[in-house]
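notes to self, project folder thing:

trying the whole complex as one job this time. last attempt i did each chain seperately and stitching them together was a nightmare. two parts in total, labels are on each line so i dont mix them up again. if this works i'll redo the older ones the same way
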Amino acid sequence: FKSTKERKPKKKQNVSADGENQEEKVTSGSDSGLRVSSQVDEYEQDTSDEEDIRNTVGNIPMEWYKDYPHIGYDLDGKKIFKPIRNKDELDEFLDKMENPDYWRTIHDKMTGTDVCLSDEQVDLVHRLQQGKFGDVNFNEYEPAIDFFSNEVMIHPVTNRPADKRSFIPSLIEKEKVGKLVHAIKMGWIKPRRPKETAPQYYDLWAKEDPNAILGRHKMHIPAPKMRLPGHEESYNPPPEYLLTDEERQVWEQQDPDERKLSFLPQKYLSLRAVPAFSRFIQERFERCLDLYLCPRQRKMRVNVNPEDLIPKLPRPRDLQPFPTLQSLVYHGHSSLIRSISISPSGQWLVSGSDDCTVRFWEVCTTRCLKTMEVGGPVKSVAWNPAPSISLVAVSYGENVILVNPGLGDRLICSATDQLISSYEEPEEVKDQQVQWAVPEGKAQEQGQRLILTHPKAVKQVSWHGRGDYLACVMPDDGSSLQVVIHQVSRRRTQNPFHRNKGAVQCVSFHPSRPYFLVATQRYVRVYNLIKQELTKKLMANCKWISSMAVHPGGDNVICGSYDCRLAWFDLDLSTKPYKVLRHHKKALRGVAYHKHYPLFASGSDDGTVIVCHGMVYNVTACFCFSSLALSHISFYSVREWCVSIFSPQLFGLIDVYIANHIYSNLGCIVTITLPTLSSSQVRKASSSFALTLHCPKL
Amino acid sequence: MGGLQKKKYESGSATNYISRNKARKKLSLSLADFRRLCILKGIYPHEPKHKKKVNKGSTAQRTFYLLKDIRFLMHEPIVGKFREYKIFVRKLRKAYGKAEWGTAEKLRGNKPGYKLDHIIKERYPTFIDALRDVDDALSMCFLFSTFPRTGKCHVQTIELCRRLSVEWMNYIITLRSLRKVFLSIKGIYYQAEVLGQIITWLVPYQFAHDHPTDVDYRVMATFTELYTTLLGFINFRLYQTLNLVYPPKLDGKGEEESRAESEEDYAMDSERYMEKLSALSASLVRVVSTAEAEEAELDHFPAEGEDGEKLAERLKARQDQDRQEKLFEGLKFFLNREVPRESLAFVLRCFGAQVSWDKSLCIGSTYDVTDETITHHVVDRPSLEKQYINRYYVQPQWVYDCVNARMLLPVEDYFVGVTLPPHLSPFVEEKEGDYVPPEKLKLLALQKGERPEQEEEEEEEDNDDSEEEEDEDQSDDEDELKGMEEKQALGKASSVKVTPGEAKPVNRQRAEQEAKAEEKRLAVMMMKKRDKYLYDKIMFGKKRSVREANKMSAKRKALDEASKANKKKKLKK
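result (full assembly):
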């Protein structure tokens, strides 16, 4: 392939060659500037100018003369005529075939002649093509002679005398150096620091100095370590640690801060399948933030045994007697029982209910001895505490009736009747706010002895210990007539207060001293009835007092309130509660004191009655039982041997809880089963010795 | 009597605290520098007791530092270095701005740097203090060593982290102090005991990270700067205690032999040494070439106030530990190419096993697959074509479970293609009342030396029977009750009569219990308000944990039953 390529240009040259190159040769041989000859003439060798200028047209495209007979002008300004060319393709071909110098013949466009190159010229072309020097004799690698070297020669290269500046120190340099020195002195420039050669790590704690432990280190709180992972973080956890679909949904909906687990537990069948954890860098970053941004604090972990927190109280068993067992149920009322009261002899019980009846019961047998219908739902009943009088005050609507039930001692009953009927009208009749009337006919037969008609509805009645005075409460926020005190023997009524001090909730006479206690919403006021002044104002720390009871000793008062509190006042100590108990979950409705034992009970809307054993040094809850909604409770405390509590229930039942051991002393336990009680209640009440008494509905 | 009037906020807690911004101004540092300083010096904010007082009456949210801490920071020489660096940056910027390349070059030559040696010494005055705090340092170094060498942080840091973590691993191998390993979904947790300190660190799986955008890498880098310094010094000291050469050198015996041709393909000359070190297959050179029989029996002295029992206990614990350290002694492992090589090599070598892998997988393999003496071949693929007879083919979890169980578990559960038993966390120590997964119970039984598998099934059957019986009992009771109620209904119709009652058997124990419970209930009622609150809180927590445990066990029971039913179905089919 190479060879053919070399040949090609030759052929081209051959083609352009002419048949009449013989005569051309002669001229080119003598005049060609390309020819290297050894002529003496200096100007003949000079190639600086355009060499052989026979045609003066200059460097123009020769096509312009294509259509003319001449090809340009010579130095004398005469036309140079084109040689007569009669060569055609065939001539050309023949020339190429026959002429051995065809390859070195070129066509000179300027003169229109063919020139045959000499051997030297061809050689020169070859050399130039190879990138060599044109001159064969030129040695490009001649040894260089360094004249201006460090070696001092005997003879100077030049004879020039040395400059003055070559032996005088340079001022400019001096200035520059001075500046640098100054800069270094001033610390503006610092010399390059030497590279450190000391090893990067060494034994830092080679000498552990005990003095190095400063107060700082003692105060320092080390960061808590990362929490160690649990089973749920395993790549193959036990199946119960995986979240179910619901749990997963919950997890996804939760705020990231609220989540219990910061990741979703996942199970992979093999280690190969475990991917990278996408939050790895974040978690590490969060740890970093915690380390330098979180305030640290030493927190004392409360490491208490919860059992130690429970106060050490005497065992309830040691505080007996107190009621523990439900033993009697009084059945008869058809609606809610509002109030109950026990006769001073302890034999009888009176109850008033919303079904507009008052019933009298024998306590021990639960037999209803008498039922009296009144004209409205009964709000309150109270048995006269004087043992020599048999009188019950019953309030319904705006009326209070005094009833002689005619139970018990005949003499007492008749004495009571006499007492009431012996009343003589005074001479001058005062205008009273309460109408006193004597009932007639059926009412009289039923035992009603007096009817007191009040201007407003009466909520509560309360007897004085002697049995002559009766206080009635007519709660009304806006009026000064809220409490009236009646004297039964003289049928007189008086309004002790002229000013309204808030809605009165309940009142009570002091058992031994001439005090009168009035409970308003927040305070209990103690009035001295003789001096007619306010003695004390007890601040019950509660919102709304519901009930109040005075201890028979007279020194202690308890108040129940609708905000679940029971406040215990010691009248000797302070006007603030000595103790506030919050045992109940709902509003208290009734509180009661036992006459002999240090017991008090509270009944609440949450359906429980709590009996507490309260001594001055501590209070112990003894017993708690549940019943349905309660309205009023009272202790049965007449006979010393019997401690029981009455708690009227919704739907007209009165439960009686009796101290267990009293009955055990008696040697037997009697369960009275009423048809409304379920078998489970029977079981609860029964003991190992049981006798079941079936009785019909009372 | 008069004296000066006291002004507010001029004494007491208001003067003991300083807000972050004020502290920053006091130190005349930028926020970034202040942050860096706090990280390096280990200064953390404090929560004042009375925030409003400290905040001079304002309730705005502020971070407070102790004034004492800030005063302490003022003496820190590094603060000066920070300022110098700031000036340097300013000068350099100026030089570049003016295109004074020579000045810039000169400045760069004098780039101010700082060392953290004194800070480490100051923060951790004793070596044990430093060891105690090395957890986070290790986790961070292991994380950084897996970062790509592009962006995010300096290549030098990554290389240093890699070097330090490899040194640490080599140390743990030499000491044989690895205790627990846990494969979690986050990464692999390792726990080792070094000089009595329990050290736990987390290594991510070998995957590329997708770098989050909400992470400040400067903070991480500052921490890493501190941690690399700390870890370097710790490593040096630890190597010294074991008489090892630091920086670590591989044992000379293997040096020439292992210069096989394949290594040239694997790593460049400059990197080969590091790579070989990180292959974890060869042991390290000691300063004093100790004889093999250094295992002189230690004398045991009872510590002060320690009785014989405790001593015996301690001795036993020591023996257990020794046994664990030699768990894989004499076993020869071969790792297939799909298992995590570094982790397994590390764990196996920590317990005395010989380990190798395919030559093309990594540098430093010591024997070939064809070696007849290989006892265990770790495989993590569903099936294997060519199997040798005289070796077990186990899945990688076997190794980790064995380490955590401190004994060689039966290999049957871990054969190739077998569904693996759950992998439990060795860090969980169940207290009384906590939920314990049944696998853990099984493991505990195994550790005691029982083989409970067959018995368990029988037990399960027994349980079923007894449950059925109970059900029957209950139904009997109900029948009786019904009968009684009917009788009572009949009795209602009749008039008064007295019948001999039935003596009800009284369960004295139960009655007593009930009485006690009632007593307690009443006592709880009588509690003081303050105590009650605490009591309620404690009881709430207890109840919740019990509830959770119950929930877990119920879940497990349901799952087990479901799987049983599935099995039965399959069998029937």
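what i see at first glance: The radius of gyration of chain B is 34 Å.
need to look closer tmrw
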